[in-house]
Structure formats: structure tokens, C-alpha cells
Amino acid sequence: DVQLVESGGESVQAGGSLRLSCVASGATQDIGCMGWFRQVPGLEREGVAAIFSGGTRTYYADSVKGRFTISRDNGENTVYLQMNSLKPEDTAMYYCAAEFRMVRRPLGEYEYNYWGQGTQVTV
User: Fold this and answer.
1) Helix extents (H) in the chain
2) pLDDT 10s digits, 7-53
3) What integer pLDDT is reported at residue 89 of this predicted model?
4) Fewest CB atoms within 10 Å of the CB: 47, 54, 84, 115?
5) Strand runs (DSSP E) across 27-121, as ranges?
6) For residue 33, which of 103, 80, 110, 105 has the smallest C-alpha distance?
């Protein structure tokens, strides 16, 4: 089992930057893929970025490419989401997700079985 705890969300002006962190605990050595998702009330959860265990394969939603960067520190069991040039449309609850088994669609929410509680980002 894995537990995920996000942090770093806050209110920021448009054009600003934030870095979200997600610390994993439990059976972290078996985690394959980790992702960041976001959700606005009334809308479906959207995949934002994902990274595989080696840290070299990353995936981004078109809406955040060039502005967001996902990274992973396996030694610290932490995944980060650096968000630059933030826009009002980036306002959402951001969730961290993790999965042990093979993930075929890294930005698909149904690929992940482990989720954090979320951290709110307001732009």
C-alpha cells in the first residue's frame, strides 16, 4: 500500500510560479508511474503530468506543456510539479497519484489506484 501527501498549493497572481510536492510513504519501492491531476468542481479530473520511475519518461497535457515540469526524487520518495507562468485557468485542486502496475495511459485517471487528498491552487 502507498500513502500520498501533497503540499505547496496556495493563491498566486497570474504569471507567477508554484512548486507542488507529493511525498509517498509505504511500499514506495514498487511504484512505477506517478502523476499529477487537477479538478475543478463540476468537471472531470484532468491529467496534467506524469513521470515513470526512471524519471526520464514524462508526459504533459497540451494545456501545460512548456509551463509545467514534473520531476521525481526516488531517494526522497517525492514527486514535484513546478508550475510557471500560471494562468487563471490553472485554478483547481491538484492531486498526486501513483500506481504499481504498468500504466498504458499516464494521463488517464483510471490508471491509478493511489491518490492523495489534494492541494488547492488558485490563480
Assistant:
1) none
2) 999 999 999 999 999 999 998 888 889 999 999 999 999 999 999 98
3) 97
4) 54
5) 33-39, 46-52, 58-60, 68-73, 78-83, 92-99, 114-115, 119-121
6) 103
